[in-house]
Amino acid sequence: MTSSQPTHPTIEIGGVPVGRDHEPFIIAEMSGNHDGSLDKALDIVRAAAAAGAHAVKLQTYTAQTITLDVDSPEFRLSDDHPLWGGRRLHDLYEEAHTPWEWHEPVFSLARELGMLAFSSPFDPTAVEFLEGLGVPAYKIASSEIVDLPLIRLAAGTGKPIIISTGMASVGEIHAAVEAARSVGNEQVIVLSCTASYPADPSASNLRGIPVMQDAFGTPIGLSDHTMGVGAAVASIAFGAVLVEKHVTLSRDEGGVDSDFSLEPDELALLVSETKVAWQALGEPRIGARESEREGLRFRRSLFVVEDVQEGEPVTARNVRSVRPSTGLAPDTFSLLEGRTFRRSVARGTPMSWDLV
Questions:
Q1: Closest Cα partner for 2 from 213, 160, 222, 172?
Q2: What one-character-per-residue DSSP string does 170-228 give?
Q3: C-beta separation of 195 from 182 below 8 A
Q4: Distance (Å, rounded) from C-alpha 32 to C-alpha 177?
Q5: Taking every annotated instance into account, which residue ranges of this chain make up the domain AFP-like (predicted)?
Q6: Residue 204 within a domain
């Protein structure tokens, strides 16, 4: 399943280029970490901006639009779930949802602070609502990747579509990407993702990132639920162009997603270290870099290390390997040893064949 799309496409989100030739695009996912407080939500926006994130993202749903108010085993999480064991879906989403009337002040503050702001819609009413707020992109959550009508609706707006792929098969990802393209939208970014909370780093499977790029012909990013920034930084080496991480003001304060969220100082570290990782990629070549030009001058070579007279033999006492590099290569000493100097030579003269 190979796409005919460009190998390294660049996509613009709100005027910001996202692709292999640009520094990693960092999304701070607020999710339910506002804990039902608009003031806290706005503080998270301020913290994300101060940390250098490119965008802040919300999730646009209500408990009623994402599930049903039903109490049966189908509508409860498993008892052994590490964070939300036994909870009813409706109760969890009621707690975690971001009130729709908060979106405008959150988005406005983000823009005021120089960040982009957008959201994950979970049903058609959310797309309609977000269109009214002029969002620059849409994120499709992992569980919604099978909702192809929702993907086509969001892609039909002409905005970039970011598709998270936790739990998805190759066929499901292909279907989602093609759903977006079917309405004429080629601005698709696919996110490698492990949909467990928190995710074990061993399940990240970062080696799959270049495989995904070859398969789908889109830029590939990472939606990361591991603790810390290690997996996210490593993903850049495999070609990730975007990293999304959940963000909280303090894990100690609790909250539905706080256990696998970054605190502000960690988000700042993510921004700086993914940029360093991207800068370090370079090109697929081996050899001296331009920045090493001065260092080349100070490689070792053979020099006359004491004054010698015409006719004296070359010995290990009067010729040695030292820095800098303007003399003969050190390995030529065996060819020089025992030969005689043609003329008197001062200490500090680089060895050359015309001296013997």
A1: 213
A2: HHHHHHHHHHHHTTT---EEEEEE--SSSPPGGG--TTHHHHHHHHH-S-EEEEE-SSS
A3: no
A4: 27
A5: 301-356
A6: yes
Determine the distance from the C-alpha atom of residue 144 to the mean position of all C-alpha atoms in its chain, rounded to a whole number: 22
Task: Please spell the DSSP secondary structure of 117-166, one letter per residue.
Answer: EEEEE-SHHHHHHHHHTT-S-EEE-GGGTT-HHHHHHHHTTTS-EEEE-T
3-class DSSP state of 275: helix
Per-residue pLDDT tens digits for 101-150: 999 999 999 999 999 999 999 999 999 999 999 999 999 999 999 999 99
Query: Rounded to whole angstroms, how far apart are CA atoms 86 and 73?
Result: 9
The secondary element (H helix, E strand) that includes residue 299 is: none
Beta bridge partners of 26: 243
Q: Hey, what are 354's tokens? A: 């015309």
Q: Are 354 and 306 in contact (CB under 8 A)?
A: no
**Residue-wise pLDDT tens digits, 27-44:** 999 998 999 999 999 999
Find the domain containing 332 and state its range: 292-355
232 and 296 both lie in a single domain: no
**Does residue 326 sit within a domain?**
yes
Report yes or no: 33 and 260 within 8 Å, Cβ to Cβ. Answer: no
Residues 6+ apart with CB under 8 A from 275: 23, 24
Phi, psi of 60 (to 5 degrees): -110, 100
CB 152 within 8 A of CB 124: no
Give the type of residue at 42. L
What CA–CA distance (Å, rounded) separates 15 from 47? 22
Instruction: Summarize the confidence of residues 204-219 as an average pLDDT.
Output: 96
Mean pLDDT across 196-203: 89
Q: Same domain for 351 and 221?
A: no
Start-to-end CA span in the chain (Å)? 67
Pairing of strands 138-140, 161-164: parallel
